[in-house]
Amino acid sequence: MSTTVKIKNIIIGGGNRIAVQSMTNTDTLDVAATTEQLKRLQLAGCDIARLAVSSDAEVEACRNYIGKFDMPLVADIQFDYRHAIACAEIGFDKIRFNPGYIGDEKNVRKVVDACKAHGVPIRVGVNTGSLESDVKHMNKSDALVASAMKHVKLLEKFGFTDIVISVKSSDVKTMVDAYRKLAATVDYPLHLGVTESGADMRGIVRSAVGIGALLVDGIGDTVRVSLSGDPVNEVSAAKTILQEAGVDKEYCEIISCPTCSRCKYDLKSVVDELKEKTAHIRKKVKVAVMGCVVNGPGEAGDADFGACGGGNGKAALFVGGKVVRTIDTKDIVKELLALIDAKISE
Q1: How far apart are CA 167 and CA 153, in angstroms?
Q2: How confident is the model at residue 287 (pLDDT cuts 50, 70, 90)?
Q3: DSSP string over 215-275
Q4: Which residues contact 77 (CB under 8 A, 6 or more apart)?
Q5: Least enclosed by CB within 10 Å: which of 107, 126, 192, 235?
Q6: pLDDT tens-digit map of 147-189
Q7: Closest CA to 21 of 197, 193, 198, 196
Q8: DSSP-derived secondary structure letter, 337
């Protein structure tokens, strides 16, 4: 189990709930657009939001965001150590930077001193695209770990241990291998992600394979799904990955069969309506919607409730794998919602 790092009101590591992160892609100087996007991220369930800070003007613009949201805000710094210091001073809840980009060790020391003074954690973020020349002869996963550890040791040299680490790659296998090696090396909290994963279905699947493999292994303390486009989509994708990896169990899980010619009702519309009407539920409930009695209560025997089509406009309603009564297919959603409501009210 990893150590813990407190980021404003969020504690990551130590077996705490895995936090979902995202990053704004509006112009940091555009206060109206960035504020609106941060509001949308928070409403979508984002736990921690990051902003790129690349100039003195952007540091000043960030004064408009700090303290305005319940979720912690992280400053993403690339090259200028002075921006990291300024962000710590104006109230950012965490700084993300690659010490190798900051330059001289004395500049890293200045950042560390500022973060210590203001209680600001640091994420050491290493990507395959930012590897130093002295590790490029290694295979990519070893190089990521070596680079991260070099920077971690530098922070530790200055007495700083309030650290989170990420070792991201756009190649899933490289990313998974690197995190597994890192998890065997350190007990700092790990921020998981497949960098530059792409857009839409491809990006979600790539992220799910990489992040999901690690979560199933028990590795990871916070996640970001990096998708091109609206970052709100990153939040919903991350939450789904956490659920399907079995990490987040407090939701209404709906399983359904792929259907075949035996299915005599519009199963997909039933599933869609149930998903919409149970999206708010934060309690463990499992519901099955099956096409026919062949794949009904038996295959979905571990579901709390379910229904399977029986033909002629009828369906079997089952509880705990046992059929309790026959209902009209048009009433499947209504009957299942009644059972779900009764369970979550217990």
Answers
A1: 15
A2: very high
A3: HHTT--SEEE---SS-THHHHHHHHHHHHHTTS---SEEEEE----TT--S-HHHHHHHHH
A4: 53, 83, 84, 87, 95, 96, 97
A5: 107
A6: 999 999 999 999 999 999 999 999 999 999 999 999 999 999 9
A7: 193
A8: H
Q: Are 25 and 231 in contact (CB under 8 A)?
A: yes
pLDDT score for 100: 65
The vertex-27 CA angle with 45 and 227, nearest 5°, equals 50
Query: Cβ atoms within 10 A of the Cβ of 332, count?
Result: 25
How far the first Cα of the chain sits from its last, in Å, is 33
Length of the chain (residues): 346
Give the H/E segment covering residue 327.
Answer: strand 322-328
SS3 85: helix
CA distance 231 to 218: 26
Q: Rounded to an integer, what distance in angstroms lies between the CA atom of residue 256 and that of residue 188?
A: 39
The Cα–Cα gap between 89 and 282 comes to 37
Whole-angstrom Cα distance, residue 25 to residue 345? 40
pLDDT tens column, 202-211: 999 999 999 9
* Alpha helices (H) in the chain, listed in sequence order: 31-44, 56-61, 81-90, 99-102, 105-118, 140-157, 172-183, 200-216, 232-244, 267-278, 332-344
* pLDDT (tens digit per residue) in 300-317: 889 999 999 888 899 999
The distance of Cα 175 from the centroid of its chain, to the nearest Å, equals 15
Residue carrying structure tokens 């916070």: 222
pTM: 0.91
Instruction: Count the alpha carbons within 13 Å of 76 in the hemisphere toward its beta carbon.
Output: 13
